[in-house]
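job 3f2a | input accepted
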Amino acid sequence: MHQTHDLVLLADYFQFRLQDASASGDLSAAWSDAAVERMLALAPGVVGLGTVRNMTVPVRLALLEQAPGIDLDAVDHAVEGPLQVESGRVSIAGCTDHLPDALHLPLASGSYRVRLSAHGLDTLSDDGLHGDDRYLVQVWPAAPGEVQVLKQWAG
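job 3f2a | predicted structure (155 res):
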């Protein structure tokens, strides 16, 4: 199942989403102050992933067979949360993207863990429009669980 996809997504409203292809994708009530701080919001079948820029950002999506290791010294921010997949497909898109145009990938129905690792968060220009920030989204089968911040960005 190991697959990697390099994307450039519009992080409109400082976010993009990974979701079960059949989920509604409504994260409007999920972006609480705590969710914004941890850069991760949840709704049924949807994970909202935060960014530090309201622009296009580079994203690497990795679908894995098991939990990956992480070097917390090599990331600026890392957070994990659960995703339930019912349809056998996931999609990844900017929050205002037209979902039928998003990247859709087969992923067996079941429970997954999603990790967002963010790099280069301190490279933003003063106007917040340019930077070398990049985002790694890793997904692997796992029992349902709570959101866990592995490393909090102090920015």
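job 3f2a | The chain has one helix and eleven strands.
job 3f2a | closed
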